[in-house]
Amino acid sequence: MDQPKIQIRNLKKAFGSKVVLSNINLDINAGESFVVIGGSGTGKSVLIKCILGLLTPDAGQILIDGEDVTHVPAKKRQDMMKRFGMLFQGGALFDSLTVWRNIAFGLMNAQGVKADIARQIALEKLREVDLPETVANIYPAELSGGMQKRVALARAIAGKPEMIFFDEPTTGLDPIVSSTINQLIVRNVRHLGATALTITHDINSLRHIADRVGLLFKGEFIWVGSVAEMDQTDNPYVKQFIQGLPEGPFTSLQ
Ligand SMILES: Nc1ncnc2c1ncn2[C@@H]1O[C@H](COP(=O)(O)OP(=O)(O)O)[C@@H](O)[C@H]1O
Ligand SMILES: [Mg+2]
Predict the structure, then answer these.
(1) Could you give the number of structural domains in the chain?
(2) Ligand 1 lined by 200 (C-beta under 6 Å)
(3) Ligand 1 pocket, 46 CB below 6 A?
(4) 21 alpha carbon to ligand 1 midpoint, in Å?
(5) Residue-range definition of the domain harbouring residue 132
């Protein structure tokens, strides 16, 4: 078996007395698309932030290509960030920057790419997410929600990341726009050959994107398997989640 791209071992994270991640164990293989599902407030975004180094875990380890990166110094962290692409929950574009400057932000600020070259790359990325070059010089507020998501995707892929994280990429979009975003995600992740971790509530999105799925509940992955296994499992938590049922183990435990 090849070395997993990302390994998470006994990861713990609490805020004060509130334990969010109690014991996370997960291996994600190189080139794999892993999808995390789970109720609101179960720590899905916190998990991504721990992997990215935006939050420091209380215990446990995160290994990338077998190397422990849980507590790397700031300079090395900066180098590592170049290997990551991220689409934040809500898209989180900079209102005061034009579309091309949003896409080029990481290239110019973290990687020191000069403006004229960064602009060329941004225009190329606009094409890769099927947006016309004419949007390059306008501001995010002038775009529809679906177009903003495309720009956020273009920004996430701009640095040709090895690993890419999508936090609820289709939340708030209508089903047709969501399908388009899902297709663009799959196409661009494949094109990069990247390893992807996506958080979603959207089962349709999951079916488009996932190789494997993990269900996060009370700080742990209580079920991990392929999409085919997900459809066949008797696990009542998974069944309630994928069928969107109002009654089930989640409801009775709340
Ligand atoms: N920086 C923070 N400080 C304190 N509490 C936080 C912080 N970030 C997240 N939390 C709490 O951790 C829990 C999980 O949050 P989050 O990972 O955002 O959930 P979700 O699964 O919906 O993405 C929530 O109760 C949230 O309030
Ligand atoms: Mg979240």
Answers:
(1) 1
(2) no
(3) yes
(4) 10
(5) 96-160
